[in-house]
Amino acid sequence: GNGTLTGGAGTTYTVFTAGSSATYNGCRIESAEIQAIVTTTTGMVRLFVSGGGTICLLTEIPIPSVTVSATEPAFRTTVPLNGFQLKAGYSIIATTQNTETFNVMIQGNDWNYPAASSITNFTPASGTSVTTEELLHSLLVPGGLFNTGDVMRVYAELITTNSANNKTFYISVNTTSSLSGATKLAKVVYTATAAESLMRLFPVISATSMGCHNSATVSAQTQYEASTGTTANITVPTVASNFYVIISGQKATAGETDTVQWSMVKKEN
To answer: How far apart are the first and last CA of the chain?
Structure first.
């Protein structure tokens, strides 16, 4: 048995561990079931919270003297814990005053905050004085945000030089924040305009496939304005893992402006 009130000496038993902080924000504990499986003598079962290098007494449950027989059931009680918030990764440990055997069952639910349905970048980014494609905005999409049947909406507000020269913007996806190895999903080409936007919808066909109208072969501000073209499924990095949505720009004439004012990736469902 263990009669201490600190849980730091004698025999202790880990009866419950909250989910990892890598996945959950905490655990809501509703109750503890204490079930003796032997004859008991007057004593105590104690529950402690263990974590972060410390052990703290949570509650004490008095145990009566009960002689188990054909007509006398073993002692059992339900201890309300009223939604006690256990920190992610922390444990509940139990001790018994006397050397007697109990089953201790904890009822609780791990919980986490719902993932944000949109990712935004409000920091303007401009290309340099080159004519090669440049990464302007990169938005990290957490794995699991999108599932089969969802729709991914990508939007970017753009600033360009008002001239007859092409300013091309692309939407791509990649496993890294890089144009190297990226898969292009859409493009738009602007000339004589100073402020524009780019918005596309991509239905998630499967974890590694998205529906894409005209891909990056036809310039379109949105797929709604296109009267021709085809929609095809494009292989993309798995949406079950983190991936990047990239807005890039390319100018026909060095020194002109291609700026992303702000961008967004949003889950539509």
So the answer is: 56
User: Six-digit token pair at 236?
Assistant: 């993309």
Contact 42, 100 (CB under 8 A): no
Model pLDDT, residue 8: 73
Average pLDDT, rounded, for the chain = 93
- Which DSSP state fits 192? S
What residue type is assigned to position 83 of the chain? G
How many other β-carbons are positioned within 10 Å of the β-carbon of residue 212? Answer: 24
Secondary element (H or E) of residue 125? strand 125-126
3-state secondary structure the chain: CCCCCCCCCCCCEEEEECCCCCCCCEEEEEEEEEEECCCECCEEEEEEEEECCEEEEEEEEEECCECCCCCCCCCEEEEEEEEEEEECCCEEEEEECCCCCEEEEEEEEEECCCCCCEEEECCCEECCCCCCCEEEEEEEECCCCCCCCCEEEEEEEEEECCCCCCEEEEEEEECCCCCCCCEEEEEEEECCCCEEEEEEEEEEEECCEEEEECCCCCECCCHHHCCCCCEEEEECCCCCCCEEEEEEEEECCCCCCEEEEEEEEEEEC
Residue 143: alpha-carbon gap to chain centroid: 7
SS3 176: coil
% of the chain residues with pLDDT over 90? 80
pLDDT tens for each residue of 113-138:
887 899 999 999 999 999 999 999 99
pLDDT higher than 90, residue 212? no
Spell out the residues 6+ positions from residue 176 whose beta carbon is closer than 8 angstroms to its own.
244
Q: Is the pLDDT of residue 2 over 80?
A: yes
